[in-house]
Write a structure and sequence with these properties.
Number of strands: 10
Radius of gyration: 18 Å
Number of helices: 12
Bound molecules: zinc ion
CATH architecture: Alpha-Beta Barrel
CATH class: Alpha Beta
Strand order of the largest sheet: 1-2-3-4-5-8-9-10
Largest sheet: 8 strands, parallel, barrel
CATH superfamily: Aldolase class I
Number of domains: 1
Order of helices and strands: HEHEHHEHEHEEEHEHEHEHHH
Length: 287
Protein backbone atom coordinates (compact mmCIF):
# COMPACT_ATOMS: atom_id res chain seq x y z
CA UNK A 1 0.00 0.00 0.00
CA UNK A 2 1.24 3.48 -0.83
CA UNK A 3 2.18 5.60 2.17
CA UNK A 4 2.61 9.31 2.82
CA UNK A 5 6.24 10.42 2.70
CA UNK A 6 5.98 12.13 6.08
CA UNK A 7 7.03 9.28 8.33
CA UNK A 8 9.92 8.09 6.15
CA UNK A 9 11.28 11.64 5.87
CA UNK A 10 10.96 12.46 9.56
CA UNK A 11 12.87 9.23 10.26
CA UNK A 12 15.49 10.14 7.65
CA UNK A 13 15.97 13.63 9.04
CA UNK A 14 16.38 12.27 12.58
CA UNK A 15 18.70 9.50 11.35
CA UNK A 16 20.85 11.79 9.15
CA UNK A 17 20.25 10.09 5.83
CA UNK A 18 18.10 10.96 2.82
CA UNK A 19 15.36 9.15 0.91
CA UNK A 20 15.66 9.27 -2.87
CA UNK A 21 12.86 10.46 -5.09
CA UNK A 22 13.26 8.76 -8.44
CA UNK A 23 11.10 10.07 -11.24
CA UNK A 24 9.29 7.47 -13.32
CA UNK A 25 8.34 7.55 -16.99
CA UNK A 26 6.85 4.18 -17.85
CA UNK A 27 6.49 0.57 -16.73
CA UNK A 28 10.20 -0.26 -16.97
CA UNK A 29 11.15 2.77 -14.87
CA UNK A 30 8.60 2.01 -12.19
CA UNK A 31 9.54 -1.65 -11.98
CA UNK A 32 13.28 -0.85 -11.84
CA UNK A 33 12.85 1.61 -8.97
CA UNK A 34 10.46 -0.58 -6.95
CA UNK A 35 12.54 -3.75 -7.33
CA UNK A 36 15.74 -1.94 -6.36
CA UNK A 37 14.13 -0.34 -3.29
CA UNK A 38 12.97 -3.78 -2.16
CA UNK A 39 16.42 -5.33 -2.80
CA UNK A 40 18.07 -2.49 -0.87
CA UNK A 41 15.43 -2.61 1.87
CA UNK A 42 15.08 1.13 1.42
CA UNK A 43 12.11 3.50 1.59
CA UNK A 44 11.50 5.21 -1.75
CA UNK A 45 9.54 8.01 -3.36
CA UNK A 46 8.31 7.64 -6.93
CA UNK A 47 8.24 11.08 -8.54
CA UNK A 48 5.81 11.88 -11.35
CA UNK A 49 6.04 15.22 -13.14
CA UNK A 50 2.92 16.62 -14.79
CA UNK A 51 4.52 15.89 -18.18
CA UNK A 52 5.31 12.28 -17.26
CA UNK A 53 1.78 11.89 -15.87
CA UNK A 54 0.36 13.03 -19.19
CA UNK A 55 2.76 10.73 -21.08
CA UNK A 56 1.56 7.75 -19.04
CA UNK A 57 -2.01 8.77 -20.12
CA UNK A 58 -3.02 10.29 -16.79
CA UNK A 59 -2.62 10.02 -13.03
CA UNK A 60 -5.19 7.25 -12.64
CA UNK A 61 -3.14 5.01 -14.93
CA UNK A 62 -0.06 5.74 -12.83
CA UNK A 63 -1.84 4.92 -9.57
CA UNK A 64 -3.25 1.70 -11.03
CA UNK A 65 0.14 0.61 -12.37
CA UNK A 66 2.03 1.34 -9.15
CA UNK A 67 -0.55 -0.28 -6.86
CA UNK A 68 -0.75 -3.37 -9.07
CA UNK A 69 3.00 -3.68 -9.29
CA UNK A 70 3.50 -3.34 -5.55
CA UNK A 71 1.06 -6.14 -4.93
CA UNK A 72 2.36 -8.47 -7.62
CA UNK A 73 6.05 -7.85 -6.92
CA UNK A 74 5.47 -8.18 -3.15
CA UNK A 75 6.95 -4.77 -2.42
CA UNK A 76 6.94 -4.32 1.36
CA UNK A 77 9.27 -1.31 1.80
CA UNK A 78 7.55 2.09 2.29
CA UNK A 79 6.68 3.63 -1.08
CA UNK A 80 5.22 7.10 -1.64
CA UNK A 81 3.76 8.13 -4.99
CA UNK A 82 4.50 11.83 -5.32
CA UNK A 83 3.57 14.54 -7.79
CA UNK A 84 6.70 16.50 -8.73
CA UNK A 85 6.41 20.29 -9.27
CA UNK A 86 2.64 20.29 -9.38
CA UNK A 87 0.43 23.21 -10.27
CA UNK A 88 -2.54 23.75 -7.96
CA UNK A 89 -4.82 22.01 -10.50
CA UNK A 90 -2.34 19.15 -10.92
CA UNK A 91 -2.26 18.68 -7.14
CA UNK A 92 -6.05 18.45 -7.00
CA UNK A 93 -6.07 15.83 -9.77
CA UNK A 94 -3.45 13.69 -8.02
CA UNK A 95 -5.29 13.91 -4.71
CA UNK A 96 -8.36 12.58 -6.47
CA UNK A 97 -6.45 9.90 -8.41
CA UNK A 98 -4.96 8.29 -5.29
CA UNK A 99 -1.40 9.64 -5.02
CA UNK A 100 -0.01 9.52 -1.48
CA UNK A 101 2.08 12.68 -1.69
CA UNK A 102 2.20 15.91 -3.68
CA UNK A 103 4.50 18.82 -4.30
CA UNK A 104 2.92 22.16 -4.88
CA UNK A 105 5.35 24.38 -6.74
CA UNK A 106 4.20 27.90 -6.02
CA UNK A 107 7.72 29.27 -6.35
CA UNK A 108 6.90 31.12 -9.57
CA UNK A 109 3.93 32.89 -7.98
CA UNK A 110 4.13 35.88 -5.65
CA UNK A 111 4.75 34.70 -2.08
CA UNK A 112 1.21 35.66 -0.98
CA UNK A 113 -0.34 33.41 -3.62
CA UNK A 114 2.12 30.62 -2.77
CA UNK A 115 1.07 30.93 0.90
CA UNK A 116 -2.66 30.95 0.12
CA UNK A 117 -2.55 27.87 -2.13
CA UNK A 118 -0.19 26.01 0.19
CA UNK A 119 -2.61 26.65 3.08
CA UNK A 120 -5.52 25.15 1.15
CA UNK A 121 -3.48 22.07 0.25
CA UNK A 122 -2.23 21.61 3.83
CA UNK A 123 -5.85 21.24 4.95
CA UNK A 124 -6.74 18.73 2.25
CA UNK A 125 -3.58 16.65 2.70
CA UNK A 126 -4.02 16.47 6.48
CA UNK A 127 -7.55 15.19 5.99
CA UNK A 128 -6.42 12.57 3.44
CA UNK A 129 -3.27 11.49 5.28
CA UNK A 130 -1.09 12.62 2.38
CA UNK A 131 2.24 14.43 2.55
CA UNK A 132 2.85 17.85 1.00
CA UNK A 133 6.04 19.41 -0.29
CA UNK A 134 6.32 23.15 -0.87
CA UNK A 135 8.96 25.14 -2.69
CA UNK A 136 10.53 28.49 -2.01
CA UNK A 137 13.08 30.09 -4.34
CA UNK A 138 12.86 28.47 -7.73
CA UNK A 139 15.24 25.71 -8.74
CA UNK A 140 17.25 26.68 -11.81
CA UNK A 141 17.67 24.59 -14.90
CA UNK A 142 17.35 24.49 -18.62
CA UNK A 143 14.43 26.41 -20.01
CA UNK A 144 14.25 26.96 -23.75
CA UNK A 145 17.89 26.02 -24.09
CA UNK A 146 19.12 28.59 -21.58
CA UNK A 147 20.63 27.18 -18.40
CA UNK A 148 19.69 29.48 -15.52
CA UNK A 149 21.67 29.59 -12.32
CA UNK A 150 19.94 28.17 -9.25
CA UNK A 151 18.35 30.81 -7.05
CA UNK A 152 18.87 30.88 -3.31
CA UNK A 153 15.72 30.92 -1.23
CA UNK A 154 15.03 33.59 1.38
CA UNK A 155 15.24 31.73 4.73
CA UNK A 156 12.48 33.91 6.25
CA UNK A 157 10.11 32.97 3.41
CA UNK A 158 11.06 29.32 3.98
CA UNK A 159 10.08 29.62 7.62
CA UNK A 160 6.79 31.22 6.67
CA UNK A 161 5.88 28.37 4.31
CA UNK A 162 7.20 25.68 6.69
CA UNK A 163 5.02 27.09 9.50
CA UNK A 164 1.90 26.51 7.40
CA UNK A 165 2.21 22.82 8.18
CA UNK A 166 3.81 21.32 5.08
CA UNK A 167 5.73 18.06 5.56
CA UNK A 168 8.84 18.85 3.50
CA UNK A 169 10.34 21.93 1.99
CA UNK A 170 12.34 22.43 -1.20
CA UNK A 171 14.49 25.50 -0.82
CA UNK A 172 16.64 26.68 -3.69
CA UNK A 173 20.31 26.58 -2.67
CA UNK A 174 21.95 27.10 -6.04
CA UNK A 175 20.85 23.67 -7.31
CA UNK A 176 19.46 23.22 -10.82
CA UNK A 177 17.59 20.58 -12.80
CA UNK A 178 19.36 18.60 -15.49
CA UNK A 179 23.11 18.57 -16.04
CA UNK A 180 25.19 21.15 -14.20
CA UNK A 181 27.17 23.59 -16.37
CA UNK A 182 30.97 23.52 -16.13
CA UNK A 183 31.00 26.94 -14.44
CA UNK A 184 28.46 26.00 -11.75
CA UNK A 185 29.33 27.60 -8.41
CA UNK A 186 28.19 24.67 -6.26
CA UNK A 187 25.55 24.46 -3.55
CA UNK A 188 25.13 27.36 -1.16
CA UNK A 189 25.63 25.69 2.22
CA UNK A 190 25.31 29.10 3.84
CA UNK A 191 21.70 29.33 2.57
CA UNK A 192 20.99 25.72 3.54
CA UNK A 193 22.32 26.27 7.03
CA UNK A 194 20.25 29.45 7.47
CA UNK A 195 17.09 27.67 6.22
CA UNK A 196 17.70 24.67 8.46
CA UNK A 197 18.18 26.90 11.52
CA UNK A 198 14.84 28.61 10.94
CA UNK A 199 12.84 25.52 9.98
CA UNK A 200 14.08 23.11 12.66
CA UNK A 201 13.00 19.51 12.20
CA UNK A 202 11.39 20.12 8.77
CA UNK A 203 12.84 17.65 6.23
CA UNK A 204 14.49 19.69 3.47
CA UNK A 205 14.44 18.59 -0.16
CA UNK A 206 17.29 18.85 -2.63
CA UNK A 207 16.10 18.97 -6.24
CA UNK A 208 18.43 18.47 -9.19
CA UNK A 209 20.42 15.63 -7.62
CA UNK A 210 22.08 14.67 -10.92
CA UNK A 211 25.76 15.47 -11.01
CA UNK A 212 26.13 17.07 -7.58
CA UNK A 213 29.51 15.82 -6.26
CA UNK A 214 29.28 13.16 -3.54
CA UNK A 215 30.92 15.28 -0.86
CA UNK A 216 28.35 18.06 -1.44
CA UNK A 217 25.50 15.52 -1.19
CA UNK A 218 26.86 14.26 2.13
CA UNK A 219 27.29 17.77 3.49
CA UNK A 220 23.74 18.67 2.40
CA UNK A 221 22.40 15.62 4.29
CA UNK A 222 24.41 16.70 7.37
CA UNK A 223 22.73 20.11 7.12
CA UNK A 224 19.18 18.74 7.12
CA UNK A 225 18.40 17.51 3.60
CA UNK A 226 16.25 14.37 3.96
CA UNK A 227 14.95 13.94 0.40
CA UNK A 228 16.98 14.09 -2.79
CA UNK A 229 15.38 14.11 -6.24
CA UNK A 230 17.02 12.13 -9.01
CA UNK A 231 15.65 12.26 -12.53
CA UNK A 232 18.12 13.09 -15.30
CA UNK A 233 20.72 10.59 -14.08
CA UNK A 234 18.40 7.61 -14.60
CA UNK A 235 17.52 8.94 -18.06
CA UNK A 236 21.20 9.19 -18.99
CA UNK A 237 21.91 5.65 -17.72
CA UNK A 238 18.93 4.25 -19.60
CA UNK A 239 19.88 6.01 -22.84
CA UNK A 240 23.53 4.97 -22.66
CA UNK A 241 22.74 1.28 -22.12
CA UNK A 242 20.10 1.28 -24.86
CA UNK A 243 22.49 2.99 -27.29
CA UNK A 244 25.15 0.37 -26.54
CA UNK A 245 22.72 -2.50 -27.18
CA UNK A 246 21.75 -1.08 -30.58
CA UNK A 247 25.25 -0.02 -31.58
CA UNK A 248 26.46 -3.53 -30.88
CA UNK A 249 23.76 -4.72 -33.29
CA UNK A 250 22.08 -6.87 -30.65
CA UNK A 251 18.64 -5.85 -31.83
CA UNK A 252 19.47 -7.50 -35.16
CA UNK A 253 20.55 -10.83 -33.66
CA UNK A 254 17.89 -13.51 -33.16
CA UNK A 255 14.87 -12.03 -31.40
CA UNK A 256 16.90 -9.07 -30.11
CA UNK A 257 14.21 -6.72 -31.40
CA UNK A 258 11.74 -8.07 -28.82
CA UNK A 259 10.90 -5.02 -26.69
CA UNK A 260 11.43 -7.04 -23.54
CA UNK A 261 15.01 -7.67 -24.69
CA UNK A 262 15.56 -4.25 -26.24
CA UNK A 263 14.54 -2.41 -23.07
CA UNK A 264 16.27 -4.79 -20.64
CA UNK A 265 19.78 -3.23 -20.61
CA UNK A 266 18.34 0.24 -20.03
CA UNK A 267 16.15 -1.07 -17.22
CA UNK A 268 19.16 -2.77 -15.60
CA UNK A 269 21.09 0.50 -15.91
CA UNK A 270 18.33 2.40 -14.07
CA UNK A 271 18.48 -0.22 -11.31
CA UNK A 272 22.24 0.24 -10.96
CA UNK A 273 21.87 4.04 -10.74
CA UNK A 274 19.08 3.82 -8.16
CA UNK A 275 21.12 1.40 -6.02
CA UNK A 276 24.19 3.64 -6.20
CA UNK A 277 22.11 6.63 -5.06
CA UNK A 278 20.45 4.74 -2.22
CA UNK A 279 23.90 3.74 -0.96
CA UNK A 280 25.16 7.32 -1.24
CA UNK A 281 22.09 8.77 0.48
CA UNK A 282 22.32 6.20 3.31
CA UNK A 283 18.78 4.85 2.94
CA UNK A 284 19.78 1.19 2.48
CA UNK A 285 18.31 -1.03 5.24
CA UNK A 286 16.27 1.86 6.63
CA UNK A 287 12.89 0.49 5.52
ZN1 LIG B 1 12.61 19.70 -8.99
Amino acid sequence: MLVSAKEMLDKAKAGHYAVGQFNINNLEWTKAVLVTAQECNSPVILGVSEGAGKYMTGYKTVVGMVNGMMEELNITVPVALHLDHGSFEGCMKCIEAGFSSIMYDGSHSPIEENVANTKKLVEICKEKGMSLEAEVGSIGGEEDGVVGAGECADPEECKRIADLGVDMLAAGIGNIHGKYPANWKGLSFETLDAVQKLTGSMPLVLHGGTGIPEDMIKKAIDLGVAKINVNTECQLSFAEATRKYIEEGKDLQGKGFDPRKLLAPGTEAIKATVKEKMELFGSVNQA
